[in-house]
Amino acid sequence: MNRKKRLLLFAMPAAVLGIGAGGVAFTVMAVKDQTYVPSPPYAPGGEPNREVAVVYYSRSGHSEAAAREIARTLNAPIARINADYPRDFSGQRKAVSDARARALPQIRVEPIDLARARRVFLVSPTWMFRPATPLWAYVEQARLVGKQVVLVTTGNSRFEQAETDAFAKRVEARGGRLIRHVFLRRGRIFWQKSREELLKEVRTEIAGTISLEWAKLT
Hints:
- The chain is globular and about 40 Å long.
- Helix 1 (3-16) runs antiparallel to helix 2 (21-33) and helix 3 packs parallel to helix 7 (195-217).
- Strand 1 (52-57), helix 3 (62-74) and strand 2 form a beta-alpha-beta unit.
- It contains seven helices and seven strands, in the order ααβαβαβββαβαβα.
- The protein is of the alpha/beta class.
- Strands 1, 2, 3, 4, 5, 6 and 7 form a seven-stranded mixed sheet that branches.
């Protein structure tokens, strides 16, 4: 039985019990949230392009795949943000609660040197229509003076521009400048894009557009 069928079978009892569409959607997402989807590992080839850096947070692996594709395209150094949001129901509840409360979690960031970076890609899923809380926590401690920041978020539904604007202000408070937001919609909750479809969109948005903008700066 494939994964989509298992998820739908899990959701059907919720519908029978009278849970609304939103409740069924949450149930399905909570189950999906427990599954980490791996992507091929990445490390810069030879001398990395230190004028670019990629920093990301990911729980289920989608944003990690996008971040690695960006880094691979630009041969850039990359670092993961780690936070205490386990891939189970407790982690899902904590993620939703913190996102609603706009609470910043304790984070641990893999080593990365931003000193020579002119452009920093910040990548995360979208929680409650805004970047995930660990990314906000990272901005509060990052040295972004003089950096151009590209925000890349992945999500099932949408984002709110007001939240992106608020994120831009936090970047500015740390000395950086948000120059673009790229939203990668993974598809509807029940029928999401395949990993290759997501990466194709990453390549279109990042390799096709942002890398050309970068070429104009060099």
